Give the backbone structure.
Amino acid sequence: MGRLLEGRNALITGASRGIGEAIAMKLASEGANIGFSYYPSEEEDKLAAVVVSNLEGLGVKARSYGSDAGSFDECAKLIESVHSEFGSIDIIVNNAGITRDNLLMRMTEEQWDQVLTTNLKSVFNITKSATPILLKQRKGSIVNISSVVGVSGNAGQANYSASKAGIIGFTKSVAKELASRNIRCNAIAPGFIETDMTKELAEEVKEEYSKFIPLKRFGTTEEVANVVMFLASDLSSYVNGQVIHVCGGLNT
Ligand code: NAP
């Protein structure tokens, strides 16, 4: 069998590390060319350059773009650049995300705004700017990275949970709006995944959390990327408007 995404062009937000990087590598290993964004800084420029050369090592075209996913104007420019560089945008993965955890009593307006802007407005920014291109192409698959806490809620994460729940409502609405033009939109809700985002948790805390996960461990970035690959490809051609949990059975 040929590679599942041979010759398709994918845009991934926030792929200089973590889950986004694993998604980029997985899609590229199935033949997709990759444009990806990251929040620009000197350190991240270096990380992004390494990711680009790893992707090129898989024999695909790869470009990185320092671009703030929370900025509407920067997202519009990003979509324009990726479209003119690659010629089409067949797959969009809205992955960029941050946490600013705090109990509601102590949560600042800034912590609320930063998380809602980076995690939720970003998904609007990218999808809105790409929609005219997708409609013209009459094909496309959009995959939005939500979280189990967007479904279940989590103490100390009112901002993050609200942003991830918002992504689910957005996903379902876009799925209904664009389906007639052969454009699908789905979300993934990862549970606890080993990345920089969860690295700061103490070992005892991780062990405690693992007790509540039926599979008794955190997931890997590749286990999330495998499901993105499925949703991005024609293997999922009749899957639309769904939220797929990748959480070891934590949420059922
Ligand atoms: P991570 O390791 O912290 O990586 C986050 C990525 O997003 C980085 O590439 C980062 O770029 C990028 N990013 C952050 N702010 C950005 C902005 N304003 N514009 C563009 N890019 C930005 O996080 P992760 O754990 O891989 O998480 C990826 C996604 O999965 C997030 O949406 C997260 O909420 C979700 N998720 C994670 C878990 C988990 O357990 N890890 C669970 C459920 C859901 P820089 O490196 O340049 O900052």
About this structure: The chain has nine helices and seven strands. Residues 13-20, 37-39, 44, 68-70, 95-98, 118, 145, 147, 190, 192-193, 195-198 surround NAP (CB under 6 Å). The chain has a mean pLDDT of 97. The longest strand covers residues 183-190.
